[in-house]
From TrEMBL:
The chain crosses the membrane at residues 25-45, 52-71, 77-95, 102-126, 174-193, 224-243, 255-271, 278-297, 303-324. The keyword Transport applies. This is Autoinducer 2 import system permease protein LsrC. Keywords: Cell inner membrane, Cell membrane, Membrane, Transmembrane, Transmembrane helix, Transport. The complex is composed of two ATP-binding proteins (LsrA), two transmembrane proteins (LsrC and LsrD) and a solute-binding protein (LsrB). It comes from Planotetraspora kaengkrachanensis. InterPro entries: ABC_transp_permease. It is a multi-pass membrane protein. It holds the Pfam family BPD_transp_2. The lineage of its organism: Bacteria, Bacillati, Actinomycetota, Actinomycetes, Streptosporangiales.
Length: 340
């Protein structure tokens, strides 16, 4: 067996093992929906399904951006704060300038998100400050900035342009705009990671930053790009939040960073980096959202939502560890046979 053939075979094993994670999420979703629908037939009504996908759209969008960062063995805890800042700031600008439309709102939101991502990326990639410390700090800085701008005020739906509200509540062929936007972004990012050499660099960095650097991968630039994308999608998420809910205050999306990280890890993106897909992260977001909706339909105490999310997070991390050990064992055996 040649080295190239062995490498392809090894990659095939890794892909197969972690693709099984995504399949398990789909099966869990199917079982959850079937059980809930059996208990309450309205759960699978057209409106019920629409609400689930609308509720999952923004979380899945943020999970896609977070996946980019986690794959490089980093984390971004500031995404919830960025969503809140963008939602209020863009809403404030639109309320004061009724002539502005949805295009301006999206561009402004993405720009604000990119600035936040740039700060995170510079400190992590060039400043060499641990990502957990940087993004925890910027989380509080952005929250404070949001409260300073809001100064106790509230943005109301009646103050916003009709085009913005239509983005959050409109649909095409019966499919809401928000899930469509998330799916398009997810497919584009997933295709890039899978099909381009620069996209595969992110996985190389997550597997081993030192080895990636020795192989000529521009580690700092790639990590910077990951944070820029995460910030940009958080900015877009803030605009979609504004369009979806209309009425926003300074602390919107507070605590969402933990939900986003949970969705990413539950979706099979290893917290240690180098493994996972944006498709799995989006499925993780859909699973968590469906659990929330199911608990509401079944009239279960909301406490159990947090308990189940925490349990899923612990289970996902444990499964990642077991799979990583199993894959490492398989690779050692194959390398030993190849060496002999």
């Amino acid at each position: 067996m040649t080295a190239v053939t062995a490498g392809r075979s090894t990659r095939g094993i890794v892909d197969l093992v972690f693709r099984a994670r995504e399949l398990s999420i789909v099966l869990a979703l199917a079982v959850l929906v079937a059980v809930t629908a059996a208990a309450n037939g309205n759960f699978l009504s057209a409106q019920g399904l629409k609400d689930i996908f609308l509720n999952a759209a923004i979380l899945a969008l943020l999970a896609v951006g977070q996946s980019f960062v986690v794959i490089t063995r980093n984390i971004d805890l500031s995404v919830g704060s960025v969503v809140g800042l963008v939602a209020f700031t863009v809403g404030d600008v639109l309320a004061a300038n009724q002539g502005l439309g949805v295009g301006v709102a999206i561009v402004l939101g993405i720009v604000i998100g990119c600035v936040c991502g740039l700060v995170n990326g510079l400190l992590v990639s060039f400043g060499k400050v641990p990502a957990l410390v940087v993004t925890l700090g910027t989380l509080y800085v952005i929250q404070g900035l949001d409260h300073a701008i809001a100064h106790g005020r509230q943005i109301n739906a009646v103050d916003l342009p009709r085009s913005v509200l239509s983005l959050g509540n409109g649909s095409v062929l019966g499919i809401p705009y928000l899930p469509l936007i998330t799916v398009v972004v997810m497919l584009a990012v997933g295709y890039y990671l899978r099909s381009y050499a620069s996209g595969r660099d992110f996985y190389a960095i997550g597997s081993s930053p030192e080895a990636a650097g020795l192989a000529g991968v521009p580690v700092r630039r790639r990590v910077m790009a990951a944070y820029l994308l995460s910030g940009a999608l958080a900015g877009l998420g803030g605009v979609l939040w504004l369009a979806r809910f209309g009425t926003v205050v300074a602390d919107d999306a507070h605590g969402w960073e933990l939900q986003v990280v949970s969705a990413v890890v539950v979706g099979g993106v290893a917290i240690t980096g180098g493994v996972g897909t944006v498709y799995g992260a989006a499925l993780g977001a859909l699973l968590l959202t469906t659990i929330t909706s199911a608990l509401v339909v079944l009239k279960v105490n909301p406490f159990w939502q947090q308990a189940i999310t925490g349990a899923l997070l612990l289970l996902a991390i444990s499964v990642d560890r077991v799979l990583a050990l199993r894959v490492a064992r398989i690779l050692r055996r194959r390398n030993a046979r190849h060496g002999s």
